């Protein structure tokens, strides 16, 4: 069975994002990269990640699932729209087409960008951009 499960992909995401000095300079601190459960109804500036779907896949090589496909989102919040664009574009650059390898203790086959949406949270005066990715873990 593949080594990664939905709840643990956060370790891979955090490992990859927190080691990028350009991203950290844009958001200010690795403490601003967190699982989405941290903010609930009141988001703050930062980068949050959330698992949307986990699918175990059986391949021809074994009778048990040896591949896991995880769909996840990265949610970015910023008080300034230009900063939001810079942060989200950097995250897309880092994670899209991420090479197969081991990150945060988890081995992945590939990671690809799927889509983006954006909005404005008037209650908290924050611009919001959501990026969706698909990760194949082995």
Layout of secondary structure:
Layout: H1 9-18, H2 21-27, E1 33-35, E2 46-57, E3 67-78, H3 81-95, E4 101-103, E5 106-121, E6 126-137
Structure description:
This protein is of the alpha+beta class and 138 residues long. 23% of the residues lie in helices and 42% in strands. It is built from three helices and six strands, in the order ααβββαβββ. It has a six-stranded mixed beta sheet with strand order 1-2-3-6-5-4. It is elongated and about 50 Å long. It starts with 8 loop residues before the first helix and ends with a strand. The model has no long low-confidence stretch (mean pLDDT 88).
Give me some keywords for this one.
alpha+beta, 138 residues
In a nutshell, what does this entry contain?
This protein has 138 residues and is α+β, with helices and mostly antiparallel strands. The chain has helices at residues 9-18, 21-27, 81-95; strands at residues 33-35, 46-57, 67-78, 101-103, 106-121, 126-137. The protein has 3 helices and 6 strands.
